[in-house]
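Provenance

Sequences were taken from public entries as deposited. Structures were produced by running a predictor on each sequence independently, with no templates supplied. The record for DUF2338 family protein from Pseudomonas paraeruginosa is shown for reference.
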Amino acid sequence: MNADDGSLGNVLLVGLGAVAIQVALDLRRHGVGRLAALNHPGQRSQRIAAALARGACLQLEGQGQLRGLSGNVALDAFYQRPDELQDEWQTLVLCVPADSYLEVVRQLPWERLGRVRALVLMSAFIGASLLVRSALPAGCQATVLSLSSYYAATKVIDETQPLRALTKALKRRVYLGSSRQRCPARETWRRVLGGSGVEVVPLASPEAAEGRNITTYVHSPLFLGEFALERVFSRQGPPGFMYKLYPEGPITPAAIGAMRRLWCELSELLRRMGAEPLNLLRFLNDDNYPVHETMLPRAAIDGFVEADAQRQEYLLFVRYAALLVDPFSPADEQGRHFDFSAVPFRRVYRDEAGLWRLPRVPLEDYRKLALIVALAAHFDLAMPQARSLLASYENAVSRFIDCQGASQCHPSLYPIDSRPAADAIYRQWCSTC
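Predicted structure for DUF2338 family protein:
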């Protein structure tokens, strides 16, 4: 691959879950060289390897209006250990949870990856590109591209069939930032995702794109609060729903107030890092899930930033109330629309070793916010709302561990020290200023 053209060359997907299956089909349809995947060793990787050995392909099913996305794709190779890799890859695509980026990059055998020219983060958080670049070996010239969010809603249909996935929704728009100003690969990824109908908007910096990750603004205030954590840590009673109003779900005026305050804190961090903040209501409506203008007039959306705090919280509450059902779904015979907000919370569960673990929501959201708060301290930002959400999570975890016993809980439940990673991000940021 010529570093100055936009070709992706041979592509290695790091992580082979639902995200990687969707990405693999999009890449194959666009046209790449060899296409392979690396997954960490374990029982799931063994099931994947066994299925591939029987001739199985990656299979994607598009739901409803997305049936056109459906298809199969064959991998040219599958690896269960990094030391199996050879120096034949030009593009690495990280399809792993964002909170594991640093660990994954450190485990890669960079002495065997001298041809890598681009590393793509499929769902980056604020500071992710800087963190990854801080872990690259000296002399590595790879460009790091940050995608604001994974561009679809995809899940593995059945864990006993790990190569089959279902995509039930696509985002209207995502953002892409590059560690190099001149980056032809941005245009290539615009075409790759455009093939599935997703608009890719290039931005001036990775931080600008990373500041448009929707989960940073939404998951933390809704899923690190008392209501959500009680449902996640409870093993009895109804699970509750992630996007419903109280008492069925976590959405209350107080939770919406926390969302607005967190947005203000994140906006100031982005400013100090040299990136432009976003209009939160316009971002939620235009780039993600829109509502009828009857509920949110265009002028109210566009004027959100200039409105006072009370008006902003009112508009955000209206937005979530308007999405209790899918406002654009056809009504049934009783005049009811699809119950869009009835997404149940996943609860704590025991892993194969019998230890209690947390689902990705809220574990990943806590880790991401903890790192952002530690980074903000380098910019003299206290972030009281973010710290309050972190304390809510840590108190809930502490109570659960006290109740169940430390020996019964996986180490991932415990609070983490994000300061070393935040220090690395800040040093890298200073070196690029």
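The first strand starts at residue 11 and ends at 14.
The chain has two domains: 11-210, 214-432.
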